[in-house]
Amino acid sequence: MPNFFLYGEPPQALSARFLHLEALDDRSRPSEWTIRAHAHPNLNHVFLITAGVGEVRIENQPTPFAAPAVFLIPAGAIHAFAFAPETAGSVLTLSQPFWEEISRRDPALESVFARPAVLGASAEADAMSYSLTRLGQELTWTAPAHQAAVEAHLLALLVSSLRLLAQAGIEGRSALSRQAELTARFRSLVEQRYRDHAPLEAYAKELGVSVVQLRNACLKSTGSPPLRLIHERLMLEARRLLIYTSLTVAEVAYSLGYEDPAYFTRGFTQYEGCSPRVFRRREAGEAENRI
Fold first, then answer.
1. Backbone φ, ψ for residue 3 (5° rounding)
2. How far apart are alpha carbons 113 and 172 in whole angstroms?
3. pLDDT tens-digit profile of 133-173?
4. Burial of 242 by CB count in 10 Å (0-12 exposed, 13-18 middle, 19+ buried)?
5. C-alpha–C-alpha distance, residues 137 and 282, integer Å
6. How remote is the C-alpha of 184 from its chain's centroid?
7. Domains along the chain?
């Protein structure tokens, strides 16, 4: 499963305020309207589909769509597309550091890339089209207050995205409470260290809280205890490796920090409802049926 800078481009360093806008047609048409599974470690996407239909697949979960539609794809999420020919739209890409800067200024916007989302966009399509058009103009101009104008149109687009999430009933993290903020910091730390299998006490110490405080925050913010959040992140990576690589089950286990592949297999089977080998065969069979 390749990690790209932009689709088809090798990973490279990017500026802290990287922002890129292009027409959907630019990369989809040369790829015959099919974008294979890939990820961007430090880039977030907002897709606005203005014409056409197709299927978006995020973390191997397929979702059909019809225009107008919006896809919100956070950094690191594996995604793929099958567009009908002549599907039209725009793709906005912004770096994770730029996104973190924006969301620190207005925590209500944290929800936009809290998780992947595929949304109908009828209520905000015109506003988002306008924001993207003006943003595209500002990105090519050097008029006075250019940077301020870029941020203004970017913020308008993100606000429209946030409101679509709210209209779809997808719970966000507007007005982050202290507990929600602690949970967000914990999940960021988990992203860095989930392969270490560190005890919960180590996470709590690094976050400067007690285990009880961390547990209460996670339960209130997500409904899950912190150990489950760590386990879910491990299992997400396990599914990715089983689907997108040819590593053996033992190699997957070792790459995830397990000392005993049998222990990994038991944990995966309990979580997924089938063994890693059965899961891989099932996913491969479903992929063949889609082809």
1. -100, 125
2. 10
3. 999 999 888 788 888 999 999 999 999 999 999 888 775 44
4. buried
5. 47
6. 15
7. 19-167 (2.60.120.280), 178-290 (1.10.10.60)
Q: What are phi and psi of 237, to 5 degrees?
A: -65, -35
d(CA 46, CA 90): 8
Q: Which has more confidence, 124 or 14?
A: 124
What the block records as the tokens of 162 is: 């946030």
Q: Which two tokens stand for residue 112?
A: 């936009």
**Sheet strands (E) in 24-66:** 34-38, 43-51, 53-58, 61-66
CB atoms under 10 Å from CB of 147, counted, come to 9
Q: Which residue type, as a one-letter code, is found at position 232?
A: E
Instruction: List the Cα angle 89/92/97 in 5-degree steps.
Output: 165
Rg (CA), the chain: 20
